[in-house]
Design goal:
Largest sheet: 5 strands, parallel
Strand content: 5-15%
Number of strands: 19
Structural class: alpha/beta
């Protein structure tokens, strides 16, 4: 019975394509001839598919032209509607077929031949010059980089180009690349105007190599024709090595096998897993490597290697902006604020010159155009805040002027007010409070004078910037030398608060570390550990106590690596990080010889003198008061003699201020024992009082 059914089913299906109940014969190993035959068939099918897509695209274009012609024809309305409806139905079906074949509207309209695509580059750089001011050569270089694969006849499956981008901070490196990508997409030379960006500085640990592979895989799968890799100089060496291999080989071969799960790459359990991904290839992509502002190709070669630099197809560099170009950009930003205020807020603003001058004052070597853009955005937000909070008519005339404190505005001919008065104030710290706390520090008058002088210098720099003059803060990295317990940590904490309060630092936190926090336990551990500490201190002060312990001779490779990483981190973050090193005077002098760049980066060496006996008595009194106690008058003479004797015995061993703290804390414990032994009740005054017997000075 079963055999009869099999015969019947097999008679229905064509030979070789129908039902077969018998198991298939075991597969034979492929021969070179069969492999070549299959490859030729696949190439033929791919060419046929492309031909069908182009033919279908042509039909869509033809039908769209017929619709337009029919709409313009002088025929009866009923016949026009009928023809249009029939043609649109055909057009919808053809579009559905195109979508099924993976062809979007933008791809359909893209020029197909290299010659037509090259025509899209005509006048490209010139068209972007008004927007990217002062970077004509940079734009021309980008245009050449994007055109290069057409001339070199690179296939769509190949990497289209590797572009190295350097130049000053805030000079248009990003905006020039983004604007050109968008413009080329509008002209049909690129499939999309999108740009994918990977910030490699986020991959600071050895374990982050896996995350980098996943993020790169995701970026390669996007439609964006351009992928930007920035922060190469700040990532973990293992990630940097992968980037170098990607550039040199134009493919990243992975040392592990991965499989895709829900759009992500995960490690495969076995190398034989079906569909395993063993390499990442940027097919059809431009890779742009963008380095930190101010870096030149020589520095890139030092960090990434000459082979990386030689692998680049094009090297594009922005140039510093001169004052004329800065004025042009400021004028554009002022016009933009005026236009937005009119269209979105109903404000008719006059006073472009005042806004231009204000925006120019925000341009510095560190911030570049970014600082100007932030100033323009703040100006618009201030106007928006007035519209939200005040009941002004629409439209309302506003006049803006520049005053000593910034911009002032008059709404509808009213009184002049601070334009930024309604904006939420940024926390700047309390300068008076910090100064009072600094004033309570015993002694160290020369140290305090130096710290307070920083405010005057920062104010002068700000005034120069407001007038469009060059104003850069000098290096504020410091070395505190002196014996233990002389107030170095206390002053470092106040320095961080003070620099935040005057606006010189953005965060104001103090990160206190020693050798153990910077030096790793195994090879490859120190650099990321030190980098992580530096990142945590950005915006504040990094205080390294007993810094000389980092240098134990040139044979201490771990310590030398920490020092080298520290020097690099100081250079990379010189505008938002202050490093203070502390230690004994002689040891710190030797430490500065560990790295040729150390001494030049620490121009401020501040000596902390030992406390005198009088100062130690004052410190003891402050410590007791801070704990809710006070010293009996009879303690003064014994304490003075005790401190004098200990200082003569050796300030380095006695501990200075720490000795006073320890002495007071021990006296508090002794007082507790003394009062507990009393049978009668004691009053509040007795509970607060520390007597000479509580200090037990003769025993010490």
């Amino acid at each position: 019975m079963i055999n009869d059914i099999d015969k019947l089913l097999n008679s229905i299906f064509p030979a070789g394509k129908g039902y077969r109940s018998q198991p298939p014969s075991p597969p034979q190993p492929p021969t070179p001839e069969s492999i070549e035959r299959i490859r030729q068939q696949m190439d033929r099918l791919e060419r046929q598919n492309q031909s069908d897509i182009h033919r279908t695209s042509g039909e869509v274009d033809r039908l769209e032209e017929e619709i337009e012609a029919e709409q313009n024809a002088s025929q009866p309305p009923q016949k026009i509607d009928s023809v249009i409806e029939d043609t649109q139905n055909q057009l919808t079906e053809l579009r559905r077929r195109l979508e099924k074949d993976g062809v979007s509207e933008s791809r359909r309209g893209r020029p197909q031949s290299a010659v037509n695509r090259m025509a899209a580059f005509s006048g490209l750089a010139e068209s972007l010059e008004p927007k990217i001011v002062g970077q004509r050569e940079y734009l021309k270089g980008l245009s050449i980089a994007f055109k290069r694969p057409l001339v070199m006849e690179r296939q769509e499956k190949e990497v289209q180009g590797l572009i190295l981008i350097t130049g000053p901070q805030g000079s248009g490196r990003h905006s020039g690349l983004y604007s050109m990508t968008e413009e080329l997409a509008k002209r049909g030379a690129l499939k999309s105007g999108q740009v994918e960006t990977l910030d490699l500085s986020l991959y600071g640990e050895q374990e982050d190599t896996r995350l980098f592979v996943q993020d790169l895989y995701r970026a390669l799968r996007q439609e964006a024709p351009v992928i930007v890799l920035e922060g190469c100089e700040s990532c973990h060496p293992a990630v940097r090595s992968m980037v170098v291999r990607l550039a040199r080989q134009r493919v990243l071969r992975l040392d592990k096998r991965y499989v895709e799960q829900k759009g992500m790459l995960v490690e495969a359990g076995s190398a034989l897993t079906a569909g395993a991904v063993g390499e990442l290839c940027p097919s059809g992509k431009y890779l742009a490597f963008l380095f930190q502002g101010g870096w030149q190709k020589e520095k890139v070669a030092d960090v990434m290697g000459a082979s990386f630099l030689n692998a680049m197809d094009d090297q594009c560099e922005t140039q510093p902006l001169d004052q004329k170009q800065v004025r042009t950009i400021a004028a554009q930003m002022a016009d933009d604020v005026v236009e937005r205020a009119q269209q979105k807020l109903g404000f008719m603003v006059s006073g472009r010159e005042a806004m231009e001058a204000h925006f120019r004052s925000a341009f510095t070597a560190a911030s570049g155009v970014h600082g100007m853009a932030q100033a323009a955005d703040r100006c618009y937000r201030a106007l928006a805040e007035y519209r939200l909070r005040e009941d002004f008519p629409v439209p309302c005339e506003i006049e803006i002027r520049r005053g000593a404190a910034g911009l002032t505005a008059s709404f509808g001919g009213g009184e002049w007010d601070d334009l930024f008065a309604l904006l939420q104030k940024e926390y700047q710290g309390e300068i008076t409070k910090v100064k009072e706390e600094l004033g309570r520090v015993v002694g160290l008058q020369k140290v305090k004078d130096y710290v307070l002088a920083l405010e005057n210098h920062y104010r002068m720099v700000s005034m120069r910037r407001e007038k469009g003059m060059k104003g850069d803060m000098p290096s504020m990295h410091m070395i505190f030398t002196g014996n233990p317990g002389t107030g170095k940590t206390t002053i470092a904490r106040l320095v961080s608060k003070y620099l935040k309060a005057i606006g010189a630092l953005s965060g104001g936190q103090l990160v206190e570390v020693t050798r153990a926090d910077l030096v790793g336990r195994y090879v490859g551990h120190t650099a990321p550990l030190t980098t992580q500490v530096i990142q945590s201190a950005l915006g504040g002060v990094l205080f390294i106590d007993e810094a000389y312990s980092l240098y134990r001779g040139h044979d201490d490779s771990f310590g030398m690596e920490a020092i080298d990483t520290l020097v690099k981190g100081m250079e990379d973050n010189r505008d938002d990080l202050v490093v203070i090193l502390a230690g004994y005077s002689d040891e710190m002098s030797e430490f500065l010889t560990a790295n040729s760049g150390l001494k030049s980066r620490f121009p401020n060496i501040i000596e902390f003198p030992d406390y005198t006996a009088e100062e130690l008595m004052e410190i003891a009194g402050q410590i007791a008061q801070g704990k809710g106690y006070r010293l009996d008058e009879q303690c003064r003479i014994p304490l003075y003699h005790y401190f004098s004797r200990r200082q003569l015995e050796g300030a380095r061993e006695s501990g200075n201020g720490r000795m006073a703290r320890n002495l007071v804390e021990q006296a508090i414990l002794n007082q507790s024992k003394r009062i507990s032994a009393l049978e009668e009740a004691v009053g509040q005054e007795e509970l607060e009082l520390l007597k000479p017997d509580d200090f037990q000075l003769e025993e010490n």
